[in-house]
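Table S7 (text form). Paired inputs.
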Amino acid sequence: MTKKKFALSAEISTDDPAVIQKTLVELVGIDAILKTEKGFKVRTTMEGDSAREMNRTLLSALRRAEKKTTLRSEWTHDKTTERFFDYVPKRIT
């Protein structure tokens, strides 16, 4: 399967921002991260097979670092946007 390029827009809530920030820098790079009151916002592009798989991989890495982390994400490829809350798909537009 060919890799697709996705635009990621995500909000991450955490009780331990220092640990999550280190993990995010490793995954998406420092330029993609904006610190917020509740955690972080991420805006970047990533390549992968599917939005669901990439979302699962991202959240799993964040949860390994800090279990109470939550992820609200939107993955856009072409004109299709898939939204997730943690591992659960919420909407495709």
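Next pair, protein 2 of 2.
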Amino acid sequence: MEIIKIYRAGVCIVLLLVSVNCFAERKFVINPKIEMGFQNDSNFWKSEHNEVSVNTYSVKPGIILGFETPRTQVYFDATLQPFWYDDQDSPPAGVRDASDDDYTGFTGLFNANYQLSDRLSLGLSDRAYVTRDPAEADIYSDSVSRDKYTINYLEPNAYYRLTDKFGLRSAYRNTNTYYEEDIEDSSENRGIFDLYYALNRTSTFYLDYQVWARDYDQTSSNYTSNQVTLNYERTLKYFSFLGGAGYQHRSFEDAALDNLDLFTWKLQVKRMDADSTVQTTRSRLLLEVGQSMNDVGSGDEYYTASYVRFEGGYRLTELIEASAKAKYQNSDYDQSPENDDTYLLSGKLGYKPLDYLTLGIEGGYETRDSNFDGIDYKNTFVLFTLAVNYDFGKQQLQE
């Protein structure tokens, strides 16, 4: 299985780096984890007319490995994700049993960076998923499909500090998507080039240029996109701000399809306590507003995605955290008059009686309102989780 090969390759790289740096000061982290979950969806299939309540059960064992020396940082995170589904209503005619979708998913994250010299650093990242979630293939997806697929993102990159003020980053990203059923697969090759200018210690401008080609293996037209944006980033003690805007042009091999042009922009605000993580900060906030275009358009379905995303959390006590999430996206299709509005709102309480144990309860509501008949939906969900995350801590070793 391809995903297992990726996992084994990541482990081998971690072991190789440990061996190479065996005589240097180093830190090594081993963090086993497991999460068990129960979820009920009132409209599992996100259907306008055939609503079926379904329970979802999951068990997600995994491990995090971390390795660090003065010149090398390696992070590896692998999680198996078995899911089981149980109908609470009798499925209408033509609707399959939810249990037919039982499967074992996978998430693999790998990141390595090496400081080759004072000016040059090299990196390699890899993300792999076996999933039924369309959002793992495209963050702007508004699909309700539950087709199982494997997707892998592989990205070597390099950063070169030209002067004290200027820096250049380049990366190549290869993305491959394979569906289990006879559904259209695709691959993408993308070049990323960023020119940075450090205005001062807290403010940076950078010009980003990306060019990518996506190829489909069935009937959808292959395309090439070019995008350039000018961005500004400012980092303060608790807050960081990012703003950018630019232009994207997409051309298709099929001459019957019109080229697409889009003004793309993004504003982002983050808040977190200084010298903290998502797990340890007292309060956190993420707000994103912007406009872009979906990359995965099987069936030549592309749209302008205008979105607002919010996530926030506050630790009420040392043991209890409250958090909320809200999302809105308008999908304005280019090749048809379809126009969809999707909304999600949820709230969560987390209780941490032990350093390594977290109990969570989350409830939420999601809906889509479309000008096309038959694709609206409303879904209410509730989720219970029990997570064990045992951090052995950073162990500093020195010969």
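Helices lie at 2-20.
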